[in-house]
Automatic annotation (TrEMBL):
This is Protein translocase subunit SecA. It comes from Gottfriedia solisilvae. The keyword Phosphoprotein does not apply. Its EC number is 7.4.2.8. GO terms for cellular component: cell envelope Sec protein transport complex; cytosol; plasma membrane. Residues 413-584 form the Helicase C-terminal domain. It is found in: Cell membrane; Cytoplasm; Membrane. The gene is secA2. The keyword Glycoprotein does not apply. Residues 1-569 form the SecA family profile domain. CDD domains: DEXDc_SecA (cd17928), SF2_C_secA (cd18803). InterPro entries: Helicase_ATP-bd (IPR014001), Helicase_C-like (IPR001650), P-loop_NTPase (IPR027417), SecA (IPR000185), SecA2_Bac_anthr (IPR030908), SecA_CS (IPR020937), SecA_DEAD (IPR011115), SecA_motor_DEAD (IPR014018). It is an enzyme of class 7 (translocase).
Length: 795
């Protein structure tokens, strides 16, 4: 139903855009007759109109698009095709433009980027890596600069001033993760001058499915350091190697959930001479053991990470690239180091985090481009409220996609791959071999070496010339082995004589976890109407089937029929492959949906906390603001220690007395004279009034000193308790899976427990600010305090 509605809506929008394209084309000759200076003048005029509320970007979009097309012709000699104008109009409206590889998506982005930049609120163009951000900011940026706009580049390791300059530009290019990290860092600074971002406005995400779908499961985390027991990591790593699956632990390959069995728990308890692993006093040991087990079972060398120069370097499973500077938090990274026998680094703990999903949902208008968005149209609509519009191609796609060749054994599959390569290589046809891991790419490379066939290998271990290697992949006789979508964003042009040989031939050695990524691999061939072909070679031993459909696989293997080369002949095999991939996609979607719900709780906490912190940081706080924190803290404290309708015997007199006297320096409570909660409230109210008078009667210089000191103290308090809150939330999440067995909604319980936790955190922040204010006041004004103490002492 949703897909049918989306198709109808998409077709309607295309018709609207086609009418606008006619209007844009009608202006082409007008702008051709303008001088360069006259073209720039339009930018200044339109900016002023929008600023004065005399026009909107939608009033000006036809003229703006025609102007950008003319500028592109003058700067690069490239004229936007009509279908590129349609793609740009779709982006301007906050949609996802689906355009196949080679349709010039990068040039398309110049149209809405310029038009939205006229508002003066900033446009962010997100790419999947630094190379593409640099390339696009330089190439497309020339068009914008020609028209009088400023262009910035936001990449890691820039200074604060360089970051500010990049963000203050009309159009800013960069990597999505860096924009997210800047958001987190802006909410950790101690001075407004250190903040670099402007309010969110409009973003265009190139390869949007890679950013919002593939990377959605990996949150952005800024971590602090805390001490760790490296010897315990090593001890647990060695110990866990003795564990056996299904005996000592259970592992569900589909969900990647892992848990100790009763035998496993007993084994740990015997080894460490303890009675109960789950006792509170042994939670640290459990943490180390659990991380060691996860490191041993879930993380595979040359698949999930590589070891280079004595360090663990994580691999992005969707691009095959090294995730520079990224590490796992909460001790898991150190557990992997211990597994590999490496020196342990300092353990990280989270001080700030946000998911990619919730970061980009903060943009009022979000748009994106991809060659493969329709398969995830439902998720884009539900999570981001974005329609996927399939843009017509400039030339028809004539690529031949062969039916999957499926074999019983991996060895038989690889033999067929090499045979295909040899046959096509003999006539000079270029071949791109896509693999799902470093290990798989190296196996294929070894087989080609045995056949004395030359090739170029591109994986996380060899990325120095990535774009250059991918660009050469279409040359005659070239063989390129690549992990996943390495080189995505770089076009593969066919060399001389290659079209006559059938164009680029793409080979996939396994189906990916999503059909969308398979389509991306196929899409490397047959760009812009070029000839090309694709062929996937699979085996029933592939991880996709073993992990996601192992029960049906076991039954299928028993009835499988093969030819002399091991190729499966059963007519139902293609449906089995498709069904398994859909199962996997459903599982991945459920994981992203689950994580979004979990982070939705943290996101609301983050919004409130960051708003509180920014108010503290940016605005000039005064004594009124500080005493407001005291008022709210005292009200909550009285409810805690002297609740309504309670009796004296229920009170913790000593704790209540101590807690309240810390908040109000002149307060002295004689607990023997308190008969009910009203007495406590009265005593505290009188003391609070005296305290406020003392604060307000401080001379102005002393008052300024108190406020100035408290501002930075309060920021430190917020950061300290927010970090602790994130740790507590993580602990809640780790225990949430147990709730599923109690027939309760774990998300609802997490929301409830998380809310109570946040209330407690906020109370502690306000209390700590109030206690520090009292302490500061005492330090600065002891004589005044001593004179007043007799008025508020109750005996």
């Amino acid at each position: 139903m949703i897909q049918s509605l989306q198709k109808i809506i998409g077709n309607r929008k295309l018709k609207e855009y086609e009418k606008l394209v006619s209007d844009i084309n009608a202006l082409e000759s007008f702008f051709e007759d303008q001088t360069d200076e006259a073209l720039r003048e339009f930018t200044y005029t339109w900016k002023q109109k929008i600023n004065n509320n005399e026009a909107t970007i939608h009033d000006l979009k036809v003229e703006a698009f025609a102007l950008v097309r003319e500028a592109s012709k003058r700067v690069h000699g490239m004229r936007h095709y009509d279908v590129q104008l349609i793609g740009g109009l779709s982006l301007l409206d906050g949609n996802i433009s689906e355009m196949p590889t080679g349709e010039g998506k990068t040039l398309v982005s110049s149209l809405p980027a310029y038009t939205r930049a006229l508002e003066g609120k900033g446009v962010h163009i997100i790419t999947v890596n630094e190379y593409l951000a640099r390339r696009d900011s330089e190439q497309i940026g020339q068009i914008h600069e020609f028209l009088g706009l400023t262009v910035g580049l936001n990449i890691p390791d820039l200074s604060i001033e360089e970051k500010k300059s990049a963000y203050n530009a009309d159009i800013t290019y960069g990597i999505g993760t860096e924009f997210g990290f800047d958001y987190l860092r802006d909410n950790m600074v101690s001075s407004p001058e250190e903040q670099v971002q402007r309010p969110f406005n409009y973003a265009i995400i190139d390869e949007i499915d890679s950013v919002l779908i593939d990377e959605a499961k990996t949150p952005l985390i800024i971590a602090g350091k805390k001490s760790a027991q490296s010897h315990l990591y090593l001890l647990c790593a060695r110990f866990i190697r003795t564990f056996k699956r299904d005996t000592d632990y259970l592992y569900d390959e589909e969900s990647k959930a892992i848990a100790l069995t009763e035998d496993g728990i007993s084994k740990v308890e015997r080894a460490f001479s303890i009675d109960n692993l789950y006792d509170l006093e042994h939670m640290t040991l459990f943490h180390y053991v659990h991380n060691a087990l996860r490191a041993e079972v879930l993380f595979e060398r040359d698949v999930d990470y590589i070891v280079r120069d004595g360090e663990i370097q994580l691999i992005d499973l969707f691009t095959g690239r090294i995730m520079e500077g990224r590490s796992l938090s909460n001790g898991l990274h150190q557990a992997i180091e211990a597994k590999e026998g490496l020196e342990s680094t300092e353990e990280n703990h989270t001080v700030a985090s946000v998911t990619i999903q919730n970061y980009f949902r903060m943009y009022p208008i979000l748009s994106g481009m991809t060659g493969t968005g329709k398969t995830e149209a439902k998720e884009f609509l539900q999570v981001y409220n974005m329609e996927v519009i399939q843009i017509p191609t400039n030339r028809p796609v004539i690529r031949i996609d062969h039916e999957d060749a499926i074999f019983a054994k991996t060895e038989q599959k690889l033999k067929a791959v090499i045979t295909d390569v040899k046959t096509r290589h003999a006539k000079g046809q270029p071949i791109l071999i896509g693999t799902t891991s470093i290990r798989q790419s190296e196996i294929v490379a070894e087989l080609l070496e045995k056949e004395s066939i030359s090739f170029q290998l591109l994986n996380a271990k060899h990325v120095e010339k990535e774009a250059e290697m991918i660009a050469l992949a279409g040359q005659k006789g070239m063989i390129t082995i690549s992990t996943n979508m390495a080189g995505r964003g770089t076009d593969i042009s066919l060399g001389e004589g290659v079209p006559e040989l059938g164009g680029l031939h793409v080979i996939g050695t396994e189906r990916h976890e999503s059909e969308r990524i398979d389509l991306q691999l196929k899409g490397r061939a047959g760009r812009q109407g070029d000839p090309g072909s694709s062929q996937f070679y699979l085996s029933l031993e592939d991880e996709l089937f073993v992990r996601y459909n192992h029960e049906k696989l076991e039954k299928y293997v028993k009835q499988v029929k093969v030819d002399e080369n091991g190729k499966v002949l059963n007519s139902t095999i293609q449906e089995f492959v498709s069904t398994t991939q859909r199962l996997c996609e459903g599982n991945q979607y459920s994981i992203r949906e689950w994580q979004l719900k979990l982070d939705g709780v943290a996101n609301e906490h983050r919004r409130v906390m960051y708003e509180f912190r920014n108010n503290l940081l940016i605005n000039d706080i005064d004594l009124d603001w500080l005493t407001k924190q005291v008022d709210q803290t005292i009200e909550k404290s009285l409810k805690i220690y002297y609740p309504e309708n309670s009796v004296v015997e229920e009170w913790d007199q000593l704790e209540g007395k101590t807690a309240l006297e810390q908040l109000i320096p002149p307060l002295r409570i004689d607990t023997e004279h308190l008969e009910d909660e009203q007495d406590a409230w009265q005593v505290v109210s009188e003391a609070l009034a005296v305290y406020k008078d003392l604060l307000n009667n401080l001379d102005e210089e002393l008052k300024e000193s108190v406020v100035s000191l408290m501002k930075y103290t309060a920021l430190e308090i917020v950061d300290q308790y927010w970090t602790e809150h994130l740790d507590h939330l993580q602990n809640l999440i780790e225990g949430i899976h147990l709730r599923q067995y109690q027939q309760e909604d774990p998300i609802r319980l997490y929301e409830f427990d998380g809310f109570k936790l946040f209330e407690t955190t906020f109370y502690h922040i306000q209390r700590e600010i109030s206690v520090n204010l009292a302490s500061t006041f005492q330090d600065l004004s002891n004589p005044a305090l001593e004179e007043e103490e007799e008025h508020v002492f109750i005996d």
